[in-house]
Amino acid sequence: MFADLGHFTYTAIQIAFTFMVYPALILAYMGQAAYLSKHHHPSHKIGFYVSVPEIVRWPVLIIAILASVVGSQAIISGTFSIINQSQSLGCFPRVKVVHTSDKIHGQVYIPEINWMLMILCIAVTIGFRDTKRMGNASGLAVMTVMLVTTCLTSLVIILCWHKPPVVALAFLLFFGSIEALYFSASLMKFLEGAWLPILLALFLMTIMFVWHYATIKKYEFDLHNKVSLEWLLALGPSLGIARVPGIGLVYTDLISGIPANFSRFVTNLPAFHRVLVFVCVKSVPVPYIPPAERYLVGRVGPPAHRSYRCIVRYGYRDVHQDVDSFESELISMLADFIRYDWCQTNGTNSCIEDDGSSTSESRLAVIGTAAFSGAAAYEIEESMQPASVSLGFQTVESVSDVIEMEMELGAVERRVRFAIDEESETDARSEMDVSMREELEELWEAQQAGTAFILGHSHVKAKQGSSLLKRAAIDIGYNLLRRNCRGPDVALKVPPVSLLEVGMVYIV
Q: Do the record's keywords include Transferase (predicted)?
């Protein structure tokens, strides 16, 4: 039932549990308790099917088989959902996630996890060869889930429902004490098969901890070794640095500053693209991000440098776009931002309201479904009337600031295709600034020249003097997981023909 919460509504689950599942459970347990109270002598054979009357034994067997199929499918789908969300939060190695439904984004399929579950099921069946041991393992797992759920629910009562701590404590003591008794009884079967779920839980927790720990350390290394904006602006023909045609998308985890892998790239190959975009893809701990709030765009340096920063936010249930649609939408957002920034700089009254702040490297604007007045620099096909939108630059210093950025949005549905045709250019000639048109034309020409995706290819090593446990976790555990999971280019759907990888050694 918990697994199916991601696929059905709360009302459907509540109705099914109240009128179907709960009465069936009560009747089944009352029947077994009545049989045990009458046949509790040691000479009697005690089992589930022994307590079932002979006349309904075969129908019960068929229902039990069907129930096991439904239950196993729910566990499998629940495992997929949990792995997918853990991966989005950076707590699990990257695996292939296939979204099986165009309408319900929570329905996912992970081939690697499916194969692992099959191998584990076969191994447990061959290893135990006894339903009693399997029952002991299942019983301890179920009781552990119930006990952990009760503890987490007590936190939800305080943090989400904002109830007094006394209510949460009473809930925990009442239900937790009952479940603790069952949990302690299940622990008595530890040597008789109950050790399996604990071993699997420790193994998965170790993998998640090692991956999350190394990921955090890598981010801290990038944060401490980022390059200043002055270094980027100093790069020019005087140093032998050339600007080549095209768009360079530099992927980084940083939301400010220049990543170290880009400085290594320029040091070894003294050239970079005419239009440079530092792209940061963030998974935020919310299910969905509206498309109008997904892109945060800002400048890196003065307009003449043609460098931008774009933070793309995805919820843990959002479907990542393929590279073609992502590239087209990113160019459209850059065009929106260029026109918006031109309006802000020139103080045009017909533009969108702002908070009076100026553009800089540390300021970003939420660029989404906005209704600009005046002639457009791209073609728009609208299916609804645009509502008023208030956009403002806000200082972004951390991921929490990115998540908390607010914007008043109107319900507008539209399709944008970036193009500078003769008609729009003629209509806008009297209103658009020459520098703005030049910047848009350069963006269009760079798009036609092609896009290169610059990613870091990292190797993580524990620094000298680290403990043996840390060296084993980083040098062996994390690098083994990194080599055997999907690379960032595959996760971001980057075409190999446009990929540039920059090798980096992280000393953490």
A: no
State pLDDT tens for residues 117-155.
999 999 998 998 888 888 889 889 989 989 999 999 999
Q: CA angle, corner 300, sides to 295 and 306, nearest 5?
A: 95
Asked if residue 51 lies in contact with residue 32, where contact means CB atoms within 8 angstroms, the answer is yes
Q: Round to whole Å and give the CA distance between 302 and 12.
A: 55
Q: End-to-end distance of the chain based on CA atoms, in angstroms?
A: 42
Q: Which residues are registered as beta bridge partners of 312?
A: 281, 295
Angstrom CA distances, 45 to 41, 48, 183, stand at 9, 10, 25
| Residue corresponding to tokens 């629910």 | 153
Q: How far apart are CA 470 and CA 267, in angstroms?
A: 32
Using CA atoms, how far residue 222 sits from 254, 261, 457, in Å, is 7, 9, 13
Domain boundaries, the chain: 213-222+454-507, 245-449
The reported pTM is 0.69
* Segment holding 136, helix H or strand E: helix 131-159
State pLDDT tens for residues 5-35.
656 777 888 888 899 889 988 988 888 888 8
